[in-house]
Amino acid sequence: MARTCFGPFLYTYIYTTKKMKQYAWITGGSRGIGFATVKEFLSNGWHVVVLTRNTAPLNPLVEQFGSSLDVVPFDLLDVDSCELPKLPVDVLIHNAGALVNKPASEMRLSDLNYCYGVNVFGPYMLTQKLLGQFTEKAHVVAISSIGGVQGSVKFPGLTAYSSSKGAINTLMECFHAEFEADEQWSFNTLALGAVQTEMLDEAFPGFKAPLSPEELSPFIYGFATSAGRVMRGKIIPVSMSTP
Question: Which domain holds residue 28?
Answer without folding.
Answer: 22-34+42-238
